Amino acid sequence: MLVRKASPARAVGVSSGNDRRRILLGVTGGIAAYRACELARLLVKSGKEVRVVMTEAATKFVAPLTFATLTGAPVAVDGFGPSAWKMEHIELGRWAELFVIAPATADVLAKLAGGEADELLSTTHLAFEGELLLAPAMNTAMWRHPAVVENCRRLSERGARFVGPREGELACGETGVGPMAEPSDILEEIESMLTAASGFEGRRVLVTAGPTVEYIDPVRYLSNPSTGLMGIELAREAARRGAEVCLVHGPLAGSGLPGGIPAEPVVSAQQMYEAVMRRIPKADVFIGAAAVSDFRPVRPSAEKLKKEGKRGLTLELERSPDILQAVGRARRPGQVVVGFALETGELLTEARKKLASKRADLIVANAVGAEGAPFGSSSHSILLVPARGEPARLPPQSKRRVAGAVLDRVKSLLDG
Ligand SMILES: Cc1cc2nc3c(=O)[nH]c(=O)nc-3n(C[C@H](O)[C@H](O)[C@H](O)COP(=O)(O)O)c2cc1C
Question: What angle do helix axes 120-127 and 106-114 make, rounded to 10 degrees?
């Protein structure tokens, strides 16, 4: 990750005076600013030292006094106020270990992406050298706007991490992607970023993510609703633990590709197979989290299929390459192979069959249609079935936590 590490507290005037973790909470002018109060409270409750910097717009939604009371520290808003002589942007930037902006408006995402510095929060962002976590919140149309998507991509490439937005009811009454992540989920992300995870240094991890798409004609295809989130979380977590990661992914919904991780986009199962087989000889670990189409049309039409004069249409399908099986067959000693199984049948039986037929070390099995069924959901109930040892059922939890649990297993397999 292209992340600059914060130095220990060395600011003059912003005292630390203890070894609590130092979180700078940026609050910007969205309706979700009121939920940042809950986040501030959770952070303080979990033992963090919290300072808050607000934009002028944010103060229209929540008074700085609320955050000052919750955190027990003055709130920074005006870069040219009475304490301007202390150059608060530099002091706060040096003081903080982690800068979380929640909510992050479309406006502030644009400012950060463009490196603007015309008020305190964005100036502090430039003066800050640690890890940045963004919790965007906005109307669905705003979140999908190409300018916002592009700004998120740029920030992500620079190493910023994102949490949310989630899907839910917006302040404007619509339902869609846009509400800020739950404060508890933001806290979870912060905790994960603060935990110096390791154990994968010098290891190369190849992850597949997302659906594959098999075209029937130039405008129609066979695919599935995979969002790629599970693979993305695995790639992110492996990188965080020190691995050299490569992500081969099918077409993804949203803009959440992890920054600083090499990624190869593909469309079809055949292309994913070729990308994986090219990269597998150098990988220590393969994690196949992509939802690969098992079948593809034998003869995709070069022209758009017309309905005129037809009462129906029969498509002839053939098997597409079995990537996990090919990786299992080509595996070299010491390589760890992990597959995902999405099943409607009996999970354990199906997972064990898959372990044997693919020569995998671990199958991560999901039940379709069960509570927390995987597609598009951020919380996820799964069964970990190892080739050796007892299976373990994980309760519904975030995909980031599932990724952590899978990588813990992978680590013990690598340590052998
Ligand atoms: C009632 C109201 C609610 C708003 N909610 C949001 C929001 O949820 N997300 C967002 O990006 N902008 C929202 N805006 C627009 C921002 O407040 C506006 O872009 C402002 O310039 C952001 O300033 P800041 O990024 O400096 O805080 C809202 C505006 C109003 C009046």
Answer: 40
